[in-house]
Amino acid sequence: MKGLLLTNYYLIHRSFLMYTALAIVISAVIFYFADPSFYRIIAMLIILLMAMPALEVIKLESKTGYDKYVLTLPISRKNVVQSHYVFYFLIVVIGTTLSYGVFSMYSLISKSAVENIVNIVSFGTFIVLFAGALAYPLLYVFGAEKSDGIVLGGGMGGLFVAIALQGVVGYIVEILAASSLPIASSLHVPILYTLFGVGMYIASYFIALSIYRKREF
Question: Distance between the two ends of the chain, CA-based, in angstroms?
Fold first, then answer.
């Protein structure tokens, strides 16, 4: 698994660093010109831009022929799928951490505290996790040739689902607020979005694994 993860990183490390720098620059520009209503978009863009190269791994594997070569190694197809999902998840975690750092830095520089940073970033994290959950099974079905459209569709799909879930999350938060659970009320929303995102991502993994095992090269 470690070898597969390192291979994934070396395939996209240059574009990963480039997109990371781009995410920081774009977020700084939006912070300068926009108002707080754009904070969720900033958080989503930072994480999404950093995660996009991870979704390009399958495309690069196809171009180089590595997707066929890897199946000749003493590893299972399950290991290959796991490496894609684990790698993407790690990139999302890094993007989420960077997003927190950017918002914290902005609060220090502007001397204007950003309220509910955890809620803002968790919203972006959910969108990007859902984008990956939607993209990987489709990439295994339609192939790397359709990757650009699939990645774009995954991001848009994550945004729409996140917006649609706001009502459900709000309803569950009301129930939790009335309960005696020892969880701070400010953490209800980010915990719920994180649980929904991780749950969908895990479900996507099993769907993708089933597809990949039946795939013919």
Answer: 22
Task: Spell out the residues 6+ positions from residue 76 whose beta carbon is closer than 8 angstroms to its own.
Answer: none
Q: Which two tokens stand for residue 121?
A: 């970033």
Separation between Cα atoms, residue 52 and residue 176, nearest integer Å? 35
Residue 105, pLDDT score: 84
User: What's the CA gap between 124 and 212, in Å, rounded?
Assistant: 28
Cα distances (angstroms) measured from residue 66 to each of 6, 71, 87, 133, 212: 14, 9, 17, 23, 15
Q: Is the pLDDT of residue 48 over 70?
A: yes
- CB atoms < 10 A from the CB of 101, how many? 12
Q: Which amino acid is at 122?
A: S
Q: Which amino acid is at 84?
A: H
Compute φ and ψ for 74, nearest 5 degrees: -75, 55
Give residue 44's identity as a one-letter amino acid code: M
Per the structure block, which two tokens stand in for 55?
């979704």
Two tokens, residue 16: 């990963």
Helices 188-214 and 147-178: angle between axes, nearest 10 degrees: 140
In this predicted structure, the answer to whether residue 158 has a pLDDT above a threshold of 80 is no
Contacts of 58 (CB under 8 A, 6+ apart): 67, 84, 136, 139, 144, 147
Percent of the chain with pLDDT over 70: 78
Q: What is the pLDDT of residue 90?
A: 92
